[in-house]
Amino acid sequence: MFGKRRSESGSVSIFLIGVLAMIFAFVALFIDYARIAAMKAQSERLVRAAVRSVMSSYDPELQERYGLFAHGSTSGDQIMAGVLNSTMDKGDRSDRFDLLPLQLDTSSLKMERMLGEYDIFNREVSEEMKYKAPIDFSLELVSRFKPLSESMKEASDTVDVLGKLQKLYDKREEALDQMLAAQRRAGQSLKEARDLIMSPAGGAIPDQSLGSSEVVTAADIAAQYEDYVDKVNQDANRGEDEEEQYSSEIREYNRSSGKVISRLQGIQSSAAKSHAKELQNALEYWEEARSSNDKMKEVIAEAGNRGGTEGYVQVGSAIIPGAAPEASGSDPAAIHGIRDGIDQLLLSDSLFQELNDVIKTQKQDYSAFNNQLSTLLSSLAESSGVQGSSGRMKNEVIRGVSAADRYVHDYAVSGSGNKLDRVAGQLQEHRGSDKERKEKEKLSKAKLSEAAGILESINKLDQKVKQHNEEYQELQQYYDDSLTFNKEDAGSEYKGTDLDHDPYDAGKSAMKQTDSVYGSMARMMSGIKDELFQNEYAALYFTHFDLGLLKDAAASPGSRLGDAVADEMSVSHQELEYIVYGFHNPVGNVSAAYAEIFAARLAVRTMEGLVKNSKLGNPLLVLAAALLYGVEMAMADMVKLCREGSVELSSYVKIQMTYRDYLRLFLLIHSDNEKKMSRMLALIRLNTGINPAERATYASGEVRIGMRLWFLPGVIQMAGYAGGSPDNVEGNRYYVTKKADFAY
Fold it and tell me: How confident is the model at residue 713 (pLDDT cuts 50, 70, 90)?
């Protein structure tokens, strides 16, 4: 009995030991699992802290000066290793109990996404400007130009159509003048023939004695022919021993007659060539004039279908809180009304037919005269013999001189009956305003030449700014490096803007620029794009030229600029202009900015000029007067802008525009964003000595941390693999790999 209980007690003990062992193993397993979970969490915190520490070492100059974040010059690997080692160092105390004895196995760090990459730079610029740019742009620029949108659209349309018509009109009128000139030259070719036939012309030719007067006309030949025949017969009937009494007079008559006939034949021969050529030229000029007139019709027909002006409508209809009130005094309807009268510039088809008929009639009249002249020459040929008829000669001379006189009267000599004078009078009827218009064009050209003198003064500084050339060469190298780094093709560069000396070309270019401004504004309003952020960033962080230095040149075009201006031509004084235009020389960017501002002022002032001169009647006269007003006022505006730093947008919108405001507009027009970014990056590199292509904005860190397991590493290994964990167990250590990323 006693032995049986002892045996049962032993069985229970073994059972309890087994149960306790299983419980212990189970608990031990979960203890290590808990330690592993804590290890993973701690490792993740460690790698994140390490990467954050690396990226906390951003370059302070880039951030403070340009609002950009990029890793500084300190080694990221060194920072990361230092953070990890210092965090895992538990000290040397012997009585400490370390629940998580972590040990760093390996660590690695990748620095990527360089600031010099377009995408990265653009993202940082957008982050910097996303709260500033939309407000600044809408309230400061769009709201200023909104009140003028309708008037500027009408002005642009009017300058466009009238500018095209003016060139075609002048081409047509020049062709008509050349047509008349050719017809007059043809008429002049027979003027000498009339005087050679009979001078002065008359209806009768009395007989004259041989030798009584010199034979210089065909009428003289006919007048002396009867006496010539009589004296020839008298000498012929003399005896053999009688001397001829009239031989000298007869010889002189034959010589003079032959000379007159020869001259008439020469005139007829040369006139046959020149007359036909001149009338052919006249016909070609007529064709050219008619073609120009037809093209004018096409321009007028297409006047209402001009594209590229949608931006005016979108800006004008935009609702912008705090925008300026509508322009008072600006009258879009008055500008539109100018185009209603453009039909008066055309010539009717009936007039062109009449002009063509005159050419044909002149050709027919010449042919009739030429036939009469041939008949006359045929009768005069008999004057060398005694079988001719003086009566026939006289009749042919009278008919010939009558035909010649009629032709010369119609086509060569000015007078009430001259057909070409009548044509000229008809053409002059629609040229009533041409003289006044030409005077205004002449004045406009002179004023534009004065304005161009300022650019010449700026460009002449080339010789005085050589000390800055090395700096611009360095900037160009940085710019080229940025393009190469981003695999961007240099392509064609901006060629710059010159002031046109032709007022119509200048006006058209100015209005085209305004089309681009409103179109760009409309695109910006339809969606806030990266370009807007870049432009406003450039205007905020980069310096611009002090336009006040040009005040003397603006007031006195052509004057020489002094050394003070040359000293201010360094890169640091015209960074914004360089971003806009990209010239790698000291004078190009400032010159281009001045020219474009002048064009902007010319566009607005021409619009005002169209309103003020809309009552002049002839559309081309209105345009010429508007352009003259525009040029004069634009020059005055440039003087004011240089002296005072700002100028009213328009006499109808009393809002001040600064030099910087205009540069912001031009950033919109020159929207080659990649090149603008490269220029900004080149300036940043030049000013800070930091190459953005070498400064990272993204860090990716990876660490492998180990921890000694307390219990059953084999079971942990089996459980870990069974769970598909990427971690692993090596011996009695458990290793975990963690990654962390950070980007500015």
Answer: low
Residue 699 near residue 111, CB atoms below 8 Å: yes
Amino acid, single-letter form, for residue 688 = T
Tens digits of residue pLDDT in 28-65: 667 777 888 888 888 888 888 888 988 888 899 999 99
Residues 66, 683 contacting (CB under 8 angstroms) = no
**158 neighbors 179 (Cβ within 8 angstroms):** no
The 10 Å Cβ neighbour count of residue 448 is: 23
Sign of the torsion formed by the C-alpha atoms of 415, 417, 421 and 425: positive
What gap in Å lies between CA 493 and CA 672, rounded to an integer?
10
Kindly state the DSSP code that residue 347 receives in the 8-state scheme: P
CA 167/CA 272 separation, integer angstroms: 36
Q: Which of 188, 185, 195, 200 is nearest to 408 (CA)?
A: 188
Q: How far does Cα 632 stand from its chain's mean position? A: 22
CB 158 within 8 A of CB 339: yes
Determine the Cα–Cα distance for residues 345 and 720; give it in Å rounded to an integer. Answer: 94
- Contact in structure between 172 and 293 (CB atoms under 8 Å): yes
Q: Between helices 2-55 and 76-88, what is the axis angle to 10°?
A: 150
Closest C-alpha among 540, 478, 538, 472 to residue 692 = 478
Could you give the CA distance from residue 137 to residue 145 in angstroms, rounded to a whole number?
Answer: 11
Cβ(109)–Cβ(78) below 8 Å: no
Contacts 24+ apart (CB under 8 A), 62-66: 62/115, 62/684, 62/688, 62/690, 62/695, 65/541, 65/687, 65/688, 66/541, 66/684
Per the CB < 8 A criterion, the answer to whether 338 and 151 are in contact is no
Partners of residue 708 on adjacent β-strands: 733
> What are 204-239's pLDDT values in tens digits?
888 888 878 888 999 888 888 888 888 888 888 877
- What DSSP line would sit under 407-436, residue for residue? HHHHHTS-STT-HHHHHHHHHHHT-TTHHH
**Model pLDDT, residue 93:** 52
Query: What string of DSSP letters covers 141-157?
Result: IIHHHGGGHHHHHHHHH
pLDDT tens, position by position, 458-496: 888 877 888 899 999 999 999 999 999 998 887 666 666
Residues 6+ apart with CB under 8 A from 378: none
Alpha-carbon gap, residue 283 to 360, rounded angstroms: 9
Query: Is-contact 596 580, C-beta < 8 A?
Result: no
Give the pair of three-digit tokens for residue 24: 């212990």
Please tell me the distance from the alpha carbon of residue 284 to that of residue 278, in angstroms, as a whole number. Answer: 10
Q: Regarding beta strands 728-730 and 733-743, do their DSSP bridges make them parallel or antiparallel, or are they unpaired?
A: antiparallel
